[in-house]
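Shipment paperwork, digital attachment
Item: protein structure file
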Amino acid sequence: MTHKPGRSRRRWVNALAATLALVLAGGGIAASQPSSDPIGPGDDPVFGLANGCYALKSEQSGKFVRRADGGYRADADTVGGAEAFRTHAAQLGRFMFYGKGGDMLAHDGKRAIVSTRDALPTTDWTLTHTDGTYAVTATANGNQLTAANGNMELTDPGVNPAGGRFVLTPAEGCATFPDSEVNATGKPLSGTGPNGEVRGFIDAHVHLDANLFIGGQVHCGTPFDPQGITVALRDCADHGEDGMPALLENILSHGTPVAEHDTTGWPTFKDWPSHDSLTHEQTYYRWVERAWRGGLRVFTNLLVNNRVLCDVYPLKNRSCNDMDTIRAQAEQVRQMQDYIDAQYGGPGRGWFRIVRSPEEVRKVASEGKLAVTMGIETSELFGCSIRNDVPQCNEADIDRGLDEVYAMGVRQMVVTHKFDNAFGGVRFDPGIQGIAVNAGNFLGTGKFWQAEACTTPEHDNPLLSVGDGPAEVLSALPPGVTTPVYPSGPLCNTRGLTKLGEHMIRGMMDRGMIVDLDHMSVKTAEDTLRILEKVKYSGVVSTHSWTDPLNYKRIYALGGFVAAYASGLNSDPKKDSFVSAWRKARADRSEDYYYGFGYGADTNGFGPQAQPREDADTNPLQYPYKTFDGGTTMDRQRTGERVFDVNKDGVAQYGLIPDWIADMRIAAGKDGDKMIEDMSRGAEAYLQMWERVAK
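Attachment content:
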C-alpha cells in the first residue's frame, strides 16, 4: 500500500483527517448482457454443472419444479413447463439456481422455499451426486430441499431421503447470470518462447484483498463473492444513497468532505470504479481475467494492512492486528482460486493459479494461465513495531513469523512501510501527506521521524515540518506534543537497518525469499544492499518506485528486478511518467542478466491508477486492438451498462491494464516497440531472478 506524489499528494493527510472527523462525528438483480458463451460442463457430475441450463425434477414423483405463488412447486409434467435454471457456481460444489426472469430458488431461513431476486446467502445450495441423482442442501443450514405431494420445503437431513433426490435435466432458454464481460477474443498465450522463456507481463505489486484491511470497512467491494457481482461490487453502506456521508472517500478521492457520487453500482457504475477513486474495488476477478487474457502472466498479490489507521478509523468489523489480517487475506486468495475453478468446472480448471516456486510459475505459464504469487506489505510485520525505541518483538518472533508466512506461500516482502519499525527506518512520504504519515509514525512508535542531512547522493523524500500541517492532523496528536522542525534540502532518515532487521533479511535469504527495497530509508536500503552484495544474493526488487532510483544499478548488478509504479503515460521526456521510468531503468540494466521490465499497479492500495494519456483526445488508442503476441483481440471492456475506454477513463479498474500497456506503444513514440518488448520480457526476468535464490 502506497501513495504517489502529484495530483494525490494530500491523500494520506486526508485519510487521517477524515478518520478524525468520523470519530468526532461519530435492490434486485438486473439481467446482464451476455458476456460470453456459458462455460461448457466438465466431466465431474457436480462441478461440471457450472453455468449450465437445467430443470429440476423430483426423482420420486417424476415431476419438474416450476415457479408458483411466490415460490416453487414440483408438479410440472414436462421439462417445457419447468423453470429453466442457470446454475451459477457459487463455490466448488455450491450453486445458485437463477431463473429465466431473474428469480432465484431460495429458502426463508426456516422451512419455506421462496423465490427472490436478491442475491442472498439463502440462494446458495450445496449439491452432492449419488447414483445419477442429486441431493440439494441449503449451504447456510444444511437442511435438505425436498419435494412431497408437489410441495417444496426444507427438511432435516434423513427425514425424507426419497423426496430429497432430484435429477437435473438439460433445458433451454436460461437467462444469463449477471457478471462483467471480458471483451477479449482469442486463445490466451501459452507455452514458452524459442529459448524456453515465459512471455508476458508482470505486476509486481498489487493488493487483491484490500476489502479486509484497516478493519474491513474502509474498502467498498470485494474481488469476488459467491453470490456474484451484484454483491461483490456494492458501495459501502456508510456511503448512503448519494455519497454525501462517504467522508473518507470524498476527502481521499475528491479533496473535500462535501462531495457526491452515485452509489448504485451494478448495473450502471456511473461514478465508480474510477482511476482516482481510492475506496472502491478495482480488482474484481473478471477484470483480472481480462488482464490475464491481455498478456499478464505473473501477478504478485501483496497482503496489506495498517494498524494505526485501523485503530483510528471508527468503522471496523475485524481485528486491526497485521498478522490476523494477513492470515485472513491469504485465505481469501485461496477461496478466490476455488471460486474461479468452480466457474470452469472443477478444481484446477481455472486460469488463476497460486504458486510457491519458479517451477510452478513455469508450469502454469506453459498451460496459458496466470501465476499468482504472494507477498506482504505492512508496517508491523510479526508484531515488530517499536515504542519509544523499544522493539516489540525478538529474533524468535521473527523466526516463527517467517516460518508461518513461508508456509502460507509468501515469497516477497516489504520490510519497512510507512512507519519506522523494529527492522529499520522508513523512506519518508513527501510533502503534505508526509506530515500525516509522520503523525501516524508518532502515534504508532511514540516518536516523529528523525532526519539529518544526507551524506550520499541518495536521499529520502523531502520533509515538511509537522507544525506546518493542517489543523485536522495536528488535532490527532496529544496536547502539548512538541512537533519537529526540519531543515530544507535533501534529508535522510537517521534510522538504518537494526540488528533485528539484519536478522530479518538473513532469515529471508535463508528461505530463498525476495527482499523488496521499497519504503526502506536510504540507510536501511544501504545496509540491506551491503548484506546482499556480500553474498551476491539476487533476490532483491523495487516493485513500485519507492526506493531512490540511484539504487537501480545495484539491484540490476545483483541480478535483481525493477518494476515501476503504474503511473500515467506521457511522451514528453521532460515529464515524469511510466515511460520515463522505463527509460531510466533500461539505462541502468546489467548486461550480465536477462532484462525485462515490470509494473507495480498498487491497485486498491490508496494509490491512484493511471489517468488518461494527455494527448489521448487527439491520438487515442484504437479499439479493438491486438495483444502483443497477436493472439487475442481486445475491445472496450463492458461491465453492466458501463463501457470503459482507457482514452477517457484511464485505468479505472484492473481490466484496463492491457489497454494501458497497449497505449505505451503510442506514448513511447519511436521506442514503442522496444518498450512493449521489454514489458513482455518482464515475467521471465522476474522468474530468472527468483530461480537464482529459491530454495
